[in-house]
Design goal:
five-stranded parallel β-sheet; 6 helices; two-stranded antiparallel ribbon; alpha/beta; 197 residues; 32% helix
């Protein structure tokens, strides 16, 4: 993130979803510090669904692991069943578990990005900037609805935002397992690339 980048969140409407009250307070504090005044809180995915149906929301940050309905299923509901006006709301999954399978699950449910806990304001702001400045096409197919996930595994194509490059690797989905990825490893998967000239 460049120090000259500016983003005004004063008129943005945010929704944070987490079954942990302390996590809700922390996310609210971080987003408020960025100037966001219109901030809704939900302690469950079902409560968040009602908020999305009732009012305008510009960005959602949801915990990945919650009882009854988790954040991944909430984002999948948002993309597939919430309605035309709300299905494109940017959604960021926040999770303590960053195994490759969880990252792929976030990608496949239609989330824009994934952030690992413990959260940092810098990473949250960076992801919000990526969403605000990104030009990833929104894709609707029989099996997937969400931002275009077809980009090189080492990062989003910063100079080719409207689709794939000829040398992009295929977006294969499989049953992956392994240790949690660090935030740096996640950044390498989803961060905009620098193109060598």
């Amino acid at each position: 993130m460049q120090s000259t980048t500016r983003l005004n969140l004063e008129n943005a409407a945010g929704l944070i979803v987490d079954d942990n009250a302390q996590a809700l307070d922390l996310l609210a504090s971080v987003l408020s510090s960025f100037g966001m005044k219109d901030l809704q809180r939900a302690s469950s995915a079902m409560e968040a669904m009602e908020i999305v149906k009732a009012r305008r929301i510009d960005i959602i940050l949801t915990d990945g692991q919650m009882p009854v309905m988790d954040g991944y299923d909430f984002v999948r509901w948002l993309r597939h069943e919430s309605g035309e006006q709300t299905r494109t709301i940017p959604a960021i999954v926040v999770t303590a578990h960053s195994r490759r399978t969880q990252v792929m699950r976030a990608r496949d449910c239609g989330a824009n990005f994934i952030i690992t806990k413990p959260i940092t304001p810098k990473v949250i702001l960076e992801r919000i900037l990526w969403v605000a400045q990104g030009r990833r096409m929104f894709i609707e197919t029989d099996t997937y609805i969400g931002p275009d996930r077809r980009f090189k595994q080492s990062g989003m194509p910063a100079d080719f935002p409207d689709g794939r490059r000829r040398d992009d690797k295929p977006a294969e989905v499989g049953a992956l397992a392994g240790d949690n990825l660090s935030q740096d490893e996640l950044n390498n998967i989803i961060a905009p690339q620098k193109v060598a000239l």
